[in-house]
Design brief:
This protein has three domains: 113 residues, no CATH class; 118 residues, Pdz3 Domain; 244 residues, 2-enoyl-CoA Hydratase, Chain A, domain 1 (Alpha-Beta Complex), CATH 3.90.226.10. The chain has 17 helices and 22 strands. The strands form six sheets. Strands 3, 15, 16, 17, 20 and 21 form a six-stranded antiparallel β-sheet that branches. Strands 12-13-14-18-19-22 form a six-stranded mixed β-sheet, sandwiched between helices. A four-stranded antiparallel β-sheet has the order 8-7-9-10. It has 494 residues and is of the alpha+beta class. Helix content is 34%, strand content 21%.
Length: 494
């Protein structure tokens, strides 16, 4: 994905950090002084109530990880921050914690394009790309005469890095109580951008850094850079950095007695750009694996954030010889579609209603559940792979990638290596969504409609699949392009 687009998408999650004692009050942040249209308290309350009602009516899994009482508590707390004459960015700062508190990564907010443009025009950024490793933040580039590459950030402008991370995390959506996805969303350019948007935009940064090998600390003062300069610095890193080399979305390598199957996406839409058919690739890959009589299979899904529903099932059908049930149930919300027609620019809202009615029916308790037969189980294969399976995961393993991980954890003896899976073990709320546009501030809220509850038992509620071997690169390994997780896995096989 283009880095600029990736940045914009993820920044939308991060705009609303509350500033604490060491930072300006949230409504007096420098970014709120932009020349953006202001709104009356009446208009803001109207948007606020539409948002809250939309979440409660449309988001099927809104109380999956928290109670209604807990959700209402944060709603009331944020509502008290609404004052007269706030612009859309200030209002965004108020509502984003509510959206994030749904604890579903598929639910997020987006600023109006005109506000994003304003922010990009005046940005003052820390000129560094970073990598999160083992809950620490490391700098990936030097800047001018400052030899900062590979150093760990200890504090910024007197605020500890742990405190900064916690501020950002409050406003990054993720499934349940998962933190691995949140850390991955600070990688590359995202940390500096989030800091500029959520914390402050000073003219200078006082940085406390550390060389982790020598434990030597370094204090430097560095001038902020413009948005344009910031992106130029990041592009230098992206173009030369070992882990940013372009990869094909799906690949198979046969090495000695081991097959390495890399699956960076389950999305048919993404795969079509490279003229790849997912099922054809999987079937031909396993034909080669079985024919070669390989005993070990490494499946790398560290970059797999999901995609087309059912592709994870198709893959799993080659890895088991026992019947299974994927979902305990799939439930859709029941809401008045006509009520939201004027609050969306989606042309297919009526089509959405038609599809949901066709695929679901009300049970005796009034729950709108998926009809049996809508989702047909993937037939098990006559000759599946039953050798040893090793699965590499990360915080970026999400949605369909997380569902596949859960299936493998629940039904096989696969060994998981790397980082906790970013998606929830017991399922997610995703599928169809309502794109709700708040009429006064023009902020867009993406609200998922379908709750997919997996028929599983083993996992920790509110977490992703926990790896059997938690392997984290050192900063030295990362800078040198050494794939520590893959090398550890191959050493286990050898």
């Amino acid at each position: 994905m283009n880095k600029q687009i990736y940045l914009i998408l993820f920044l939308l999650f991060l705009f609303s950090c509350q500033n604490e004692k060491k930072n300006p009050p949230i409504l007096e942040n420098t970014l709120t002084k932009l020349n953006i249209e202001k709104h009356s308290k009446i208009e803001l309350v109207q948007d606020f109530e539409l948002l809250v009602n939309g979440l409660k009516e449309v988001h099927t899994g809104i109380y999956w990880y928290s109670t209604e009482k807990q959700f209402d508590s944060i709603v009331q707390h944020q509502k008290r921050q609404i004052k007269d004459s706030l612009n859309s960015l200030q209002f965004f700062n108020i509502i984003t914690p509510i959206v994030a508190y749904t604890k579903e990564g598929h639910c997020y907010a987006r600023l109006p394009e005109k506000v994003e443009t304003k922010i990009e025009q005046i940005g003052k950024y820390l000129p560094f790309c970073v990598k999160s490793l083992n809950n620490d933040i490391y700098i990936l580039n030097n800047y001018k005469k400052n030899k900062t590459k590979g150093l760990k950030i200890v504090s910024i402008n007197g605020d500890s890095i742990n405190n900064i991370i916690n501020k950002l995390f409050k406003h990054i959506p993720s499934d349940g109580n998962n933190r691995s996805l949140k850390y991955r969303e600070l990688d590359d350019d995202l940390f500096s951008s989030a800091y500029a948007i959520n914390i402050e935009q000073p003219d200078y940064f006082d940085l406390e850094l550390m060389d982790v090998s020598s434990k030597k600390k370094l204090n430097i003062k560095i001038q902020s850079v413009t948005s344009e300069k910031f992106y130029k610095e990041c592009i230098k890193v992206w173009n030369t950095y070992p882990f940013n080399k372009k990869e094909v979305p799906l690949s198979l390598k046969l090495e000695n007695h081991t097959a390495v199957l890399t699956l960076n996406t389950f999305s048919n839409r993404e795969l079509s750009k490279d003229s790849i058919n997912f099922k054809n690739f999987i079937s031909s890959s396993f034909e080669k694996i079985i024919t070669s009589k390989l005993k070990n299979l490494i499946i790398d899904i560290r970059k797999n954030s999901g995609g087309t529903e059912g592709n994870e099932d198709y893959l799993f059908s080659y890895l088991t010889n026992k019947p299974y049930q994927k979902y305990k149930y799939v439930e859709a919300s029941v809401f008045d579609y006509n009520k939201y027609l004027r609050y969306t620019d989606s042309v297919d809202l009526k089509e959405l209603e038609t599809n949901l009615i066709r695929e679901h029916k009300l049970d005796r308790k009034g729950r709108f559940l998926r009809i049996n037969g809508v989702e047909k189980p993937e037939p098990l294969k006559e000759n599946p792979f039953l050798g040893k399976v090793y699965i590499l995961t990360s915080g970026n393993t999400y949605s369909g990638g997380a569902e596949f991980s859960t299936l493998m954890k629940q039904h096989t003896n696969a060994i998981f290596i790397g980082e906790e899976v970013g998606g929830g073990y017991f399922g997610n709320t995703s599928g169809y969504q309502l794109d709700l546009i708040l009429p006064n501030t023009e902020i867009e809220i993406h609200i998922p409609i379908l709750q997919f509850v997996l028929d599983v038992e083993k996992g920790i509620f509110g977490r992703g699949v926990i790896p059997d071997f938690k392997i984290t690169q050192t900063i030295k390994e990362h800078l040198n392009g050494i794939d520590a997780e893959m090398e550890f896995t191959k050493s286990k096989i050898d």
